TrEMBL record:
GO terms for molecular function: galactoside 2-alpha-L-fucosyltransferase activity. It is found in: Golgi apparatus; Nucleus. Belongs to the Aux/IAA family. Belongs to the glycosyltransferase 37 family. The chain holds residues 63 to 520 of 722 of the full protein. Keywords: Auxin signaling pathway, Cell wall biogenesis/degradation, Glycoprotein, Glycosyltransferase, Golgi apparatus, Membrane, Nucleus, Repressor, Transcription, Transcription regulation, Transferase, Transmembrane, Transmembrane helix. GO terms for biological process: auxin-activated signaling pathway; cell wall biogenesis; cell wall organization; xyloglucan biosynthetic process. Homodimers and heterodimers. This is Auxin-responsive protein. Aux/IAA proteins are short-lived transcriptional factors that function as repressors of early auxin response genes at low auxin concentrations. Its main location: Golgi. GO terms for cellular component: Golgi apparatus; membrane; nucleus. It comes from Musa troglodytarum (fe'i banana).
Length: 458
């Protein structure tokens, strides 16, 4: 990880070093310029090339965005079903898949793909995602209009007739990436010319873009600090709407603002990889104590009262259930600490289950991700995209609780704020063989520290 290149953004730098565009009405999305005031200052400055590229993208989006003349023309062409030739405006239509964290991951990836290919990203917002995210591009919209002619977007699967893989399997495009019309194009160039590309994924596939030679130069200029891709793009794109910001601020001001330090603990138990409650609790306590994130409790009775000058650490726990919060709170309520610090423990919600199709549930999830991003120190659960979003927004290198607890390893610290690609390809294109470990193909693509072998980060 190359640390910051010299300049530190101050909280007053409202544009985050030029990342955020000018021209927004601030009151329409208060979080856009205010969120940075609650986060640790980022040591990472966006490169001038990235800033310039984003301004050019915004201009393209304004030109091609919903209900412009060029958009209407592209829609007509899509409806006419005649030509697959390139248009002046080419689009990536993002289709939601799985939970909120997964959605953010895949939107960021789709956006970088669009940026590298001069395409325009539009997102399909169902009622469950309404009023969560502010518009990221000024004077236009990234929301796919409701009258988009292709219906049932949620039903697109990998085996859909017009999916890229199916087109190859059915030899509409052959394995050498030739159109049936005999036009030879490398895969990336061919996809680049397709005017409407529908993207349905829950993955952070940015690391695989680093494996495509044709993008190498642009990526190098856009992100001279490679491990800041997610940090910059997630802060550029994702701003809670005023509705969500209300939740965030009510909770923050009520429970967290006055503490001397804020610790976020994100606990995610995956239904398919259950971890016994006591095992996970021990893991959390071992991690926070051994890394000096939280103090040990003093076994002496009666416990001494804290001094008036005692430092207060506020712990924000997020989980679908309240058990971990309750046990941590009891621990610090019933005992004093060996350091004399006072530890308060808070959890905004315990929704019991994932209800991704319910908007009110997603509002809480997004509020909690945002609150976690305000942490001074973050502890997350391995493999969880919910935690990745918080770490990216906060520019934090979290302490990761393993998904498969091992004795002696309570947690490991992430080496960067980058998110993990859970489903990397294992085909080495140059060697033309499968079963490859891609971290051996590109030196800066490496194994994620929070999952098993062969998952890649950058
Ligand atoms: P992942 O499954 O951990 O990678 O994260 P996702 O965000 O993609 O999906 C999990 C979903 O479950 C979230 O989006 C929420 O809907 C819900 N969820 C999981 N953990 C929490 C939590 O701590 N708080 C809240 N409010 N919702 C949660």
């Amino acid at each position: 990880v190359t640390a910051g290149i010299g300049s530190v953004e101050s909280p007053e730098d409202k544009s985050l070093g030029g990342l955020l565009p000018p021209g927004f009405d601030e009151s329409s999305c208060l979080s856009r310029y205010q969120a940075a005031l609650y986060r640790k200052a980022s040591p990472h400055k966006p490169s001038p090339f990235l800033v310039e590229k984003l301004r050019r993208y915004e201009a393209l989006h304004r030109k091609c965005g919903p209900n412009t003349e060029l958009y209407n023309r592209s829609i007509q062409q899509l409806e006419s079903d005649h030509s697959t030739g390139p248009m002046e405006c080419n689009y990536v239509v993002w289709i939601p898949h799985y939970g909120l964290g997964n959605r953010v991951m895949s939107i960021v990836s789709g956006f970088l793909y669009a940026l590298l290919n001069d395409k325009v990203l539009l997102i399909h917002v169902d009622q469950d995602m309404e009023d969560l995210f502010c518009e990221p591009f000024p004077d236009t919209s990234w929301v796919l209009p409701k009258d988009f002619p292709i219906e049932n977007l949620g039903e697109f699967e990998g085996d859909a007739t017009l999916s890229y893989g199916k087109l190859i399997r059915d030899k509409i495009i052959n394995n050498d990436m030739r159109f049936a019309t005999k036009v030879t194009l490398p895969a990336y160039q061919m996809l680049r010319k397709i005017p409407w590309l529908l993207l349905r994924t829950d993955e952070y596939f940015v690391p695989s873009l680093f494996l495509v030679d044709e993008y190498a130069e642009d990526l190098q200029q856009l992100f001279p600090e490679r491990t800041t891709v997610f940090h910059h793009l997630v802060r550029y794109l994702f701003h809670p709407t005023n509705t969500v910001w209300g939740y965030v601020m009510r909770y923050y001001q009520g429970y967290l603002a006055k503490a001397d330090e804020r610790i976020g603990i994100q606990i995610r138990i995956f239904p398919l990889v259950p971890i016994p409650f006591e095992t996970m609790l021990n893991q959390i306590i071992n991690c926070t104590l051994s890394q000096h994130i939280l103090p040990a409790i003093d076994p002496q009775e009666p416990a001494a009262a804290p001094s008036n000058a005692a430092k207060v650490k506020a712990v924000l726990v997020t989980n679908l259930n309240s058990g971990y919060h309750d046990r941590l709170r009891d621990m610090y309520y019933e005992h004093s600490t060996t350091t004399g610090e006072v530890i308060t423990v808070h959890q905004p919600s315990h929704e019991k289950q994932q209800y991704t199709d319910q908007r009110s549930h997603n509002v809480k999830a997004w509020s909690e991700i945002t609150l976690l991003s305000f942490s001074d120190v973050l502890v997350t659960t391995a493999w969880s995209t919910f935690g990745y979003v918080a770490q990216g927004l906060g520019g934090l290198k979290p302490w990761i609780l393993p998904r498969h607890p091992r004795p002696g390893v309570a947690c490991v610290q992430a080496v960067s704020t980058e998110a993990c690609f859970h489903a990397p390809p294992d085909y080495d294109c140059k060697a033309r063989k499968g079963g490859a470990d891609l971290s051996a193909v590109a030196p800066f693509v490496r194994h994620c520290e929070d999952v098993e072998r062969y998952k890649h980060s950058i």
